[in-house]
Amino acid sequence: MTDIAAGHYDPLEVRAPAERDADLLAALPGLLRHGLERAPALAAHLAGVDPDQIRSFAALASLPPLRKDELCRLQQANPPLGGLNATPIGQLAKIFMSPGPIFDPEGARPDYWRFARALYAAGFRRGDLVHNAFAYHLTPAGSVIESAARALGCPVIPAGTGRTEQQLSAIEQLRPVGYAGTPSFLKILLERGRDEHIDLSCFRKAVVTAEALPKALAEEFRQVYGVDAYQSYGTADLGLVAYETPAREGLVVDEGVLVEIVRPGTGDPVPEGEVGELLVTTFNPDYPLIRFATGDLSAIMPGQSPCGRTNRRLRGWLGRADQTTKVKGMFVHPSQIAEITRRHPEVGRAQLVVERADGLDRMTLRCELAAPAEGLKAALQTSLRAITGLRGGVELVAPGTLANDGKVIDDRRELS
Fold first, then answer.
1. Three-class SS of residue 98?
2. pLDDT for 384-399, tens place per residue?
3. What is the three-class DSSP state of 183?
4. Separation CA 408–CA 396 (nearest Å)
5. Whether the predicted pLDDT of 372 surpasses 80
6. What DSSP line would sit under 226-243, residue for residue?
7. In 236-306, at which residue ranges do the beta strands (DSSP E only) sit?
């Protein structure tokens, strides 16, 4: 690591963006070759791919995404890790179980999940005692934070979840300076401490994840309790993806991953700033996930962070990408709407609006296009019926009319 005074975890964080892109793209063929040779399920998923040809973002975008629901299917067919692990089971450190169930490996190297970078950005330094309120049983969150803290030289209180009274007692007596856990449990601890006159003033910083951290709650932590809380985003499959810095402007992407934002239901990249599904490629030799579709919506923010880190920034979690809905008893998928736009290149963005009128489902395909095109409306209606099996209206609108919210299917029906 660089000098603490520099404010950055290592020199990777301040690379020129072009240098970072070149480094990541140069590493892609080796990552692919390693995965194809050692992970049979990845080899089947990417059958026919020549790793030496994947040296650009456009080439990467030609590869099929790997979706989270495929992990369940692969792992059920070939337990425990579905053949996606490039390191044999016997050489791993741990195997966890996440809801699904999905099994997640932990390799034997330090800071396997790469979360030390997020803790460092939040102000954690060597010797800081960390109260780790993430679960230690079966799920990986507790281990994620502990391995990161140990990499920084921070001792840990393995508090886990629940047993609030015991945790409050431990905090009062051991005086940890930092907290790691969900923001909701931090709020519970601080409020209970205040109500029961338990001194929790030792807490000065926090890394929170697994839930959203609204600005109002972050401000409450800071103003009312003196705790500087920072949001981070990661998954049990990928480890750290992005993290908040003192700049408080979006989440800076981790140096160990490559992110893409694509149109939901497809693997097609969207322009910078447009909301879409987050795809992540992780340079993890034990578990090399390529174009892993998180199912989460986000967007790339323009420019660089004022904190000096030069990597791309995410706007944060903006919802779920799986907008599959049922209309008149039939499922309609975002991928079907994407297929319609592919058939009609005159269309820019498109969104299917589903409503209910007089007790009946009604759907309208709203399409942005730069100039009128004769016969396009009728052609779109034909494609809509051919691809979805349902009749629907078509509305042609000007570019910029549709909201930049990542919604390919906007279901406006009220739940009864």
1. strand
2. 999 998 899 999 999 9
3. helix
4. 15
5. no
6. --EEEEEEEETTTEEEEE
7. 239-244, 251-253, 257-262, 276-282, 292-298, 300-301
